């Protein structure tokens, strides 16, 4: 979309002609993408951005790089939400190629497979599953009944996805107007799942707002787990039942999270960390190979001592 046309649609002054292909973060944007600055703690990212244009408040316009167009507005985040609709993919592809199915792959009855989709050799896709447009699935992968894989997502080889799981549904993203109305931020990314990943029943893995939600090789996910948009799970990570990850959580390799534990968004958990059941992670964990428990989170040994003292008080 031409930047001038987009700005006009959003009632923002702009006289520059620039072809815009998508939205992205400040750090990851290129010259044909738009980003935004809402929170001043990301000023350093703004100064380093390669974005073609940035939604920004007037007070921060001087921080915009010379090669980036400043789209001055009062509510950058809200304008990003409105702009996201213009770059959303079609819900269903009307034109496209028939799906390519590999050798010895078994497709049971009542399975829908979208256009431009590629499925590898020796897969099994059971009844009631929905495989959307532009999906890629590797070889030797098993998809149990009633699994839904939204458009543009990628599944590796040797994976197992159990019944009822949804991969690629929209992340929970909304911007507020001044009168309290919620404006949807269209989730224009996808989900990429590596090789040798097993996902339990009735899980929900959200697609990214920009770029990809990523699950690396060898991950194991139990039933009833929710993974928010733009999360990244390192190889060998284990999430047990009812774990919830807020958006943009990064788990390094071989993190283990016990049942009903969860994270706040936009944080990182160091490699080989263990979070005990019902632990609540609200800040990044930077030291690897440690065990944590409780809410507020504390070292597991400290938590055990605390529980012991509380038990004595009750006697």
Automatic annotation (TrEMBL):
Its EC number is 2.3.1.191. Belongs to the transferase hexapeptide repeat family. LpxD subfamily. One of its GO terms (cellular component) is membrane. Gene3D superfamilies: Hexapeptide repeat proteins, MurE/MurF, N-terminal domain. One of its GO terms (molecular function) is UDP-3-O-[(3R)-3-hydroxyacyl]-glucosamine N-acyltransferase activity. Residues 17-85 form the UDP-3-O-[3-hydroxymyristoyl] glucosamine N-acyltransferase non-repeat region domain. Catalyzes the N-acylation of UDP-3-O-acylglucosamine using 3-hydroxyacyl-ACP as the acyl donor. Is involved in the biosynthesis of lipid A, a phosphorylated glycolipid that anchors the lipopolysaccharide to the outer membrane of the cell. The active site is at residue 229. This is UDP-3-O-acylglucosamine N-acyltransferase. It is an enzyme of class 2 (transferase). InterPro entries: Hexapep, LpxD, Trimer_LpxA-like_sf, UDP_GlcNAc_AcTrfase_non-rep. Homotrimer. HAMAP family: LpxD. One of its GO terms (biological process) is lipid A biosynthetic process. It catalyses: a UDP-3-O-[(3R)-3-hydroxyacyl]-alpha-D-glucosamine + a (3R)-hydroxyacyl-[ACP] = a UDP-2-N,3-O-bis[(3R)-3-hydroxyacyl]-alpha-D-glucosamine + holo-[ACP] + H(+). Pfam families: Hexapep, Hexapep_2, LpxD. It comes from Malaciobacter mytili LMG 24559.
